[in-house]
Write a structure and sequence with these properties.
Layout (H helix, E strand, L loop, with lengths): L3 H14 L10 E5 L2 E6 L2 E7 L6 H12 L3 H9 L4 E4 L15 E4 L4 E4 L8 H19 L5 H11 L32 H14 L1 H7 L1 H11 L23 E5 L3 E2 L4 E7 L11 E4 L2 E3 L1 E3 L4 E5 L6 E2 L2 E5 L2 E2 L6 E2 L8
Parallel strand pairs: 3-4, 4-6, 8-17
Antiparallel strand pairs: 1-2, 2-3, 5-6, 7-9, 9-13, 10-11, 10-15, 12-13, 14-17, 15-16
Bound molecules: zinc ion.
The site of zinc ion has 4 residues, from helix 4 and helix 6.
Amino acid sequence: MFTPFRGALVALACFVCSPQSSAQGAGVLTPTASGYTWTRGALRFELRNRHATWSTADVAKLQSGLDRLPDVLLQHAMQTKVVKLYRDDVPRKRLGLKTKASATTVIDAGAISFGDVLFTRSADTVYRTVVHEFGHVAQYAITRKPPFVAFLEVLARGTPGFSDISWSSILFNGLRSHNGFVSDYARTNDREDFAESVEFYWINPVELLRVSPQKYLFIRDRVFNALSSPPSSRLPGALAIGPVKPVISQLGDSADDPLSLVKISGEYFMGIKDGGFNRVHYRGKRALHLPISRKTLYSWVPWLSRGAAPVTVTTQDGISAPQAFTVKKPWWKFW
Ligand SMILES: [Zn+2]
């Protein structure tokens, strides 16, 4: 039975348990024999020295990052048992292999590795990297599988509901587009896209919403349980990239005979493993072409009369600006 008193209690309880009130704030840092621990309520992370040592300055930067993260994100890491935050000279991947990244997450080792280069950067950059790495953890955690199974599953099948709106290779369904990403790095694969999307959801959600409303909703509901970030966790200056379309920067030849081979250099083409399509036109006439990468195509000049034949490349993202080209009279054509 509903009574005003009970209604008030429910309202109070909902206020307390509301996603907006989920704890975030300063954790407690405690020195240990192998580094530090950072705790906040039931959350507990071990900052361990490994190939390098956590200095006071490094720890301060990491702590300011952790303090600005909500319980709901960090709980994914607790659930997946990713609780070791290693301080390395160079971040270590699986089997101890070094990586050029400034930090890396190894889900089945229960660890995130942070390298020297990261701590030469600002506290805000460290914070962004911390969100990004916990974003990786979240992608595995939401499978609710044991870490290594989750790792294989995400690698093989992606994340249903996310990978199909992310960059995906010819093997998977996906956007087949250079747009809908918060950063160029997010275009690497659906795992980096996931981590980058988590980062933007938390630090500047308007930007994620701008580039991909679908990703915004997915990350909000599946990773953050509808929690939105407080102003103290936001970096309004962090902007996502703008829309792009194919760009031709250079042609291998500016003039050539019909049927000759012309290299097209530029950006935002569809590479061989990307799926999707490229179309090349000379003076509006479709040309045979061969994609090599996202930056290189080879094309054969179509059979056209001599004269100007501007070249364009079209993909799902649109049509490039024309690049000047002239069809020459073939040397063997004497009539
Ligand atoms: Zn990453």
